[in-house]
Hints:
The complex is a heterodimer of chains A (417) and B (87).
Chain A: E1 10-18, H1 25-34, E2 40-44, E3 48-53, H2 65-70, H3 73-89, E4 101-107, H4 112-123, H5 136-140, H6 144-153, E5 159-163, H7 168-181, E6 187-194, H8 200-208, E7 234-235, E8 237-245, H9 246-251, E9 258-267, H10 277-291, E10 300-303, H11 309-322, E11 332-335, H12 337-340, H13 347-355, H14 358-361, E12 363-364, E13 388-389, E14 395-402, E15 406-413
Parallel strand pairs in A: 3-7, 4-5, 4-6, 10-11, 10-14
Antiparallel strand pairs in A: 1-8, 1-9, 2-3, 6-8, 9-15, 12-13, 14-15
Helix pairs in contact in A: 3-6, 7-13, 10-11
Chain B: H1 3-17, H2 32-35, H3 40-54, H4 69-86
Helix pairs in contact in B: 1-3, 1-4
Amino acid sequence: MSKDTDAQRIVITGCGLTSPLGDDLASMRAALLRGEARIENIEMRHMGTVHAGVCHFDARRWQGRRELRNGTRAGSVAIYCAREAVADSGIDWDAVEKPRVGVYLGITEHGNVETENEIHNISQFNNDTRYWTHHHNPRTVANNPAGEVTLNMGITGPHYTIGAACAAGNAGLIQALWMLRLGEVDLALAGGVSESIHTFGIFAGFKSQGALAVHKDPNKASRPFDKGRNGIVVSEGGAIYTMERLTDARARGAKIYGEIVGYHINSDAVDAVLPNAERQTECMGAALAKAGLTPADVDIVNTHATSTPQGDIQECKAVRAVFPAEACPRTRVNNTKSYIGHAMGAAGALELAGNLPSFDDGLVHPTINVDDLDPDCDTGNLVLNEAADAGEVRIILNNSFGMLGINSSLVVKKFAD
Amino acid sequence: MTKEECKQVVLEIIEEIAPDEDLEGLSHDVRLRDQLDLDSMDFLDIVMELRKKHGIEVPEEDYPKLASLDSCAEYLTPKFNAVKAGA
């Protein structure tokens, strides 16, 4: 967009991620184009075997053993992604003014893992709270993952997490966009992280809600839009971007992944868990309006759909309302959770990452595991099971929705002067 | 338990809580914090491990007695032996 001055235009200049599909963007993208899901069966305390998306990044690349012992998994995911993003950005980190760096990370929840672990720990000591660890509070404060990044990297600018349920990954990027536009920071490390597969409570909660996926083949368990879908596969992961004002990115000759040109967050205000198509429609529409775009301009809509029977239908209803296939011939709709499950607070940022390479290769990764398309989910422009060659991809709209009725849409444009 | 054995137990705990530290050649009469990168949370880890693994309680006012390996041995050896006798 050129309506903003270059100092108000915010671009993505580096990407660090860990996902069940790999620990860098190239690995993740290759698996997405191959149509290859990677979900595992893991043993969960009190629950037995569950499906989960597991990350296998080398935490020791950026952390000492004591740091790993004292910190949290979310902190470790965040440090890995932040360090990798900075490395990918090509920025001269030693020369960066550390008070001018901000860390803004979306989280769905934080502290459940550590609290469950301590409850288990003291249960081994007759529930004597003298055995409760002094690490509990620094591990469970809500800013923990972002704070661990600052400790590890010596960043002295602002850091905090944004609690936005499963809309959090987008919310982290939106927060960073504003802090850059306001001139509060010069470089933002922004995205989302999740350690949720280490808490039985998340799994048990979804199970009690009738929303935990079960399938004899774990790689088939997360199947948005398929008639046979029966719930969510919980995953861990993270994606963090370096974000800069276009003026700064240009000045250092940075590689630019894309420009964030539109965004919106709104609330359903009707139900704690059930999504609402009307508000989702408004959210996407408002994000496009801020970008100065029409629905027909959008090449890829990455859906939030989590493979629950009701949620997917609601979102598809909203997508149909905003992007009717007959009026939006360019628009293609896909989904990343069919490969990696639901990475919770990381989902928005991670799923955006999977689609960003489309700006370069013109391909749209498909939604996989759709053997029997639910007609209520047929938007008319779904990319199913095989990648589509769009020729050129210029605009991506990335949806992330969450509990308590929070909706977020982010619009990212292929960079052009 | 001898004082040397007691020091060994303390070193094993430190090795666990600060795995990146090199424990070779530590001076026994010099403060551990002057020789190793240990902070107050690490010291609380030592106190917790003594409680969990060995049933030894170190009241807060006695924390300074864990300053060096020598002072640890001086202070903790009777406690280890008392626990052993009690068991």
